[in-house]
Amino acid sequence: MEQIAVAGPWVTDKDVAIVVDALTNGWYDKPYWYVETFEREFARFHGRRFGVMTPNCTSALHLLLSALGIGEGDEVIVPDCTWIGSSAPVSYVRAAPVFCDIEPENWCLDPASVEIQLTPRTKAIIAVGLFGNMPRLDELLAIAKRAGVWLIEDAAESLGSVYRGIRSGAFGVGSVFSFHRTKTLTTGEGGMLLLDDENLYERCLMLRDHGRKRGGPAYYFWEVTHKYMPFNVQAALGYAQFQRLGELLARKRAIFERYRTKLADIDDLQLNHEPPHVINSVWMTTAVFGRRHAVTGASIGDALSRLGVPSRPFFYPLTSLPAYAAVRTQGARNRRAYDIAARGISLPSALMLTTSQIDRVSEAVRALLGYPPFGHERLASTTIVSVV
Ligand SMILES: *Cc1c(COP(=O)(O)O)cnc(C)c1O
């Protein structure tokens, strides 16, 4: 890989062999063997009872909101900074997204902001593990419980993260994952919904398959619903990647650790947050530049791009975008979301990134912030002293 890639998968011969098996044998009597096996093993890994694979994470969240009966007149709380897949399904079911602020350290949903926005119409809170960072789930769960609303975990970016000894994806009434080609575990396009409640599970299966009941008559439809069935070959890739999850996560961690080392002496620079009670799986290494640097994420992104280094912007606050023009005024209360998004940038974190590429990116960031090449700090200060 010559060109530095911002995101991308790590696919090996093992994955290929399993996909070929699904393509060769996964028909007739075994059309869903990989789907069901992957669902079962993925749920068990997260300490959940049920897994429901879907064409992508967005449809998994849509299924869950539908199954919970959330609809017109209801409100669902979402962080202002996240991928639109966290919020779009709220509109699919005709409920209203209510965008809340994020926290300064973990960049995730701020419990204080959530508390202020609760109304009698609030039905659910969607907490997102941004870039692998974990939101303050103990407080969010307590708020949800007190208010009598559902907590839903969008773990699309936090597969492998752990919060107080519990895996991301094990919290709340249900959790959703993405296996998009840019995510840590990929099926190209794909997603998963994890649940514990059996009735909710049966309802999700029915909603996923044109209103048919599992085990019921094949040509009999109880409701007009979605068609969000996964493909066995897609599931085979997911199953194969899941067998390698340890090495995929280790690779993401190694990328993060190298950036952290190479940028360690830069003052006032925040990377992915990892308090003592969290293990951060760091889907993407993300940097937020402190005010003393007097840069924006956009200015650094442009400058990096001129050096041949790609990056991606921190998630723009959704309330700042045309898609949510109708609720733009909600953004005024989310000061931190706007502030952090303006000063942040995600660094290349593709699984196939080489060490020398990570070093190249790090050196480019150092140079743009006026820092000497890594390892030359002492030399630089000596030079300054001798000039004085
Ligand atoms: C990637 C992502 C999604 C959507 O995933 P798809 O599989 O593309 O639908 C949802 N939420 C978050 C936080 C994501 O990063």
Characterize the structure shown.
This protein is an alpha/beta fold and 388 residues long. It is built from 13 helices and 14 strands. The strands form three sheets. A seven-stranded mixed sheet has the order 1-9-8-5-4-2-3, with helices on both faces. The protein has a four-stranded antiparallel sheet with strand order 10-12-14-13. It has a three-stranded antiparallel sheet with strand order 7-6-11, with no helix packed on it. Strand 4 (122-128), helix 6 and strand 5 (150-154) form a beta-alpha-beta unit. The N and C termini lie far apart (45 Å). The mean pLDDT is 96. It binds pyridoxal-5'-phosphate. The site of pyridoxal-5'-phosphate (PLP) has 14 residues, from helix 3.
Summary tags:
four-stranded antiparallel beta sheet; binds pyridoxal-5'-phosphate; alpha/beta; 37% helix; 13 helices; 388 residues
How far the N terminus sits from the C terminus, by CA atoms, comes to 45 Å
- Cα gyration radius (Å): 22 Å
Order of helices and strands: HHEHEHEHEHEEEEEHHHEEEHEHEHH
Overall SS class? alpha/beta
Bound molecules: pyridoxal-5'-phosphate
Proportion of residues in β-strands? 5-15%
Q: Strand order within the widest sheet?
A: 1-9-8-5-4-2-3
Question: What is the mean predicted local confidence, pLDDT?
Answer: 96
State the helix count. 13
Number of strands: 14
Task: Name the helicity range.
Answer: 25-40%
Q: Profile the largest sheet.
A: 7 strands, mixed
Unreliable parts: none
Inertia-based shape: globular
